[in-house]
Amino acid sequence: MVSFEEARSIILDNVQTVGTERIHLLEAIGRVLAEDATAPWDLPLWDNSAMDGYAVCAGDCLTIPCRLRVTGFLPAGAKADGITVESGCAVRIMTGAPVPAGCDAVVPVEETDNGQEEVTLLEPVKRGQHFRFRAEDVAAGVIFVRSGTTIRPPEVNMLAGFGMALVPVYRRPTVAILSTGDELVELGRTPGPGEIINSNTLSLAAAVREAGCIPRIIGIARDNRESHLEKLGEGLKADVLITSAGVSAGDCDLVRDILEELGAIQKFWKVGIKPGGPTAFAMYGSTPVFSLPGNPVSTMITFEEFVRPALLRMQGHRRVLRPLFKAVLREALKKKPGKVQIVRLRLEKEGGRWYAASAGNQQTAILRTMVDAQAIAVLPAASSGSAAGDEVEVHFYGNHIELE
Ligand code: AMP
Ligand code: MG
């Protein structure tokens, strides 16, 4: 058995990115840039106006109010070539328009009488005011987004601003999902006596998608050698394989043996975590293989704590664990020392602090409290439980948390 922390570091030490691809910027949101992006030109490319107003020489405006002749007009998109601000004159200018030669300040229209032929400036003028200077944002040749950065709308904006329609990103791994068990029927059939719907495949596919990867549903391996050989073999063709069930020590638990027979090398089996103890991890060449317990609660928790960070790392993300924060317990949480315990929680914020209460029945067979959980507490192995009023470390559960 390995500890929770050992399991995580074994997994993260073994996984790597699966190549890169160039994709259109429109598709790049949430992806990770695979090369440094270098500015091909200055941003902005020329000195321009930060306000709608008048381009002036500050030296002409030493006494206020000051009257100037308006000799030109520069809307956004206009070229400033051939336009000069002569002494005693002003050029009407719009935000974003290039500033003409001869001027060293822009006076906002609000600080003038808004005159057309002549303008009166009502406020003192400082050199350089309301100018956006060439290259003040990014100078040509500077790396403006580093490789390994997750692309958000601001990165999209800047990449687009530099004309980069295609961007190099890490590829999304394909993730094979295989359920095992003779009791399973596929979604769409009504389960008969002794049968249950293969809900894990759907929930794993959803979680894989939420983590940014591409699920490949392999179906169900029945509790016999031939079926396992066929389906596991198929699953090993993907970049990652996740199986559910058949990984405990029961008579029908064939997953680990057959994976070994197919050439996968087991890195660990059994983790000091509750729920989710029977989890196994193996490598088949460079393909990580996660064998998760079949109980839907255990499957989802082990995905969350072990598989999700691996899938993020495989897509080039630097930060793969959800941030932990402290919450004050509304009630005691019982626990025996020895294993990390995962507790499903409801959260509230009050007076700037987070408060947590159990989401309800914490037994592995109770799915309802997974549905109700907003956060997860990872109680350390050594802990012998926490009292009401104690602080525990928690992380949100899910990417789209709405707290009432
Ligand atoms: P096992 O790990 O095979 O002992 O399964 C543990 C529990 O999880 C049993 O109650 C199974 O019926 C249930 N289970 C196994 N696979 C699935 C699945 N694909 N979808 C939903 N429940 C499952
Ligand atoms: Mg089974």
Tell me what you see in this structure.
There is one protein chain. By secondary structure, the chain is an alpha/beta fold. Helices cover 18% and strands 30% of the residues. It has helices spanning 4-14, 153-161, 199-210, 225-235, 255-261, 296-314, 368-372; strands spanning 20-24, 37-38, 48-49, 53-56, 66-74, 89-93, 105-108, 118-121, 131-132, 143-145, 166-170, 174-180, 184-185, 196-197, 214-221, 240-244, 265-269, 273-274, 280-284, 287-292, 325-329, 340-350, 353-358, 375-379, 391-396. The strands form seven sheets. Strands 15-12-16-20-19-17 form a six-stranded mixed β-sheet, sandwiched between helices. Strands 7-4-6-5-8 form a five-stranded mixed β-sheet, with no helix packed on it. The model has no long low-confidence stretch (mean pLDDT 96). The site of adenosine monophosphate has 18 residues, from helix 3. Magnesium ion binds at residues 181, 245-246, 252, 294.
Give the tags.
elongated; binds magnesium ion; 7 helices; 25 strands; 6-stranded mixed β-sheet; 404 residues; alpha/beta; 5-stranded mixed β-sheet; binds adenosine monophosphate
